[in-house]
Specification:
The protein is mostly beta strands and 126 residues long. It is built from no helices and 11 strands. Strands 2, 4, 5, 6, 9, 10 and 11 form a 7-stranded mixed β-sheet that branches.
Amino acid sequence: QVQLVESGGGLVQAGGSLRLSCAASGRTFSSYNMGWFRQAPGKEREFVAATSRSGGIIYYADSVKGRFTISGDKAKNTVYLQMNSLKPEDTAVYYCAAQRVSGLGNLVAVREYDYWGQGTQVTVSS
């Protein structure tokens, strides 16, 4: 198994930036595809960004394209989500997730992920 711990959330004004970190332990995250999801109050958990193990495939939700960037540091077993030009509608709990590499996994589907972090709150004020 892999344990995931998110950090870096907080309160920021609209237009500001935050960088979320997801530290993995138990297994190197190079063995997994990695994703970021978010969940706002009263809403379903939704896809934000994901990367294949190799980094060769990267997906972003339409709502964050051009503003968010997913990246990783293999040596640190850490994946990041750089969030720029934040909007109030980005307010949510953000979750890091890991998907066992199968070659067939859907990187944007919540149900396809095997391990989840505890979440970190991001609040964007107007």
